[in-house]
Structures are given as C-alpha cells and as structure tokens.
C-alpha cells in the first residue's frame, strides 16, 4: 500500500470514528469499538511500513 494512500485512509478513518462517536455517544458502543480497531490496524500497518523503510 502506498504511503500517501495509507495516510489518507488513516485520516478518513479517524474522521469516521469521530463522527460515529458523536452519533453513538459512547466509547463502549460495539460499532465505535470496531471502527477504533480498524483504525488501529491501519496505524500499525503504517508503523510497520515506516520501520521497513528505515531498515532498507
């Protein structure tokens, strides 16, 4: 996955998470938790890519 595309996806997912949280009103809502976990996976992927870039 290209770096800029991944960063854009992270930014978009972050906005979606904020909207969902405002809509649901609770960090414990299952949909908020799922969206947060999806964002976590994207962020981890970004870190892994950065780490690989430093190694090469």
Automatic annotation (TrEMBL):
Any single Pfam family the record assigns to this protein: SpoOE-like
Xref: InterPro entries: HLH_DNA-bd_sf, Spo0E-like, Spo0E-like_sf
Signal peptide residue numbers: none
Name of the molecule in the record: Spo0E family sporulation regulatory protein-aspartic acid phosphatase
Gene source species: Effusibacillus consociatus
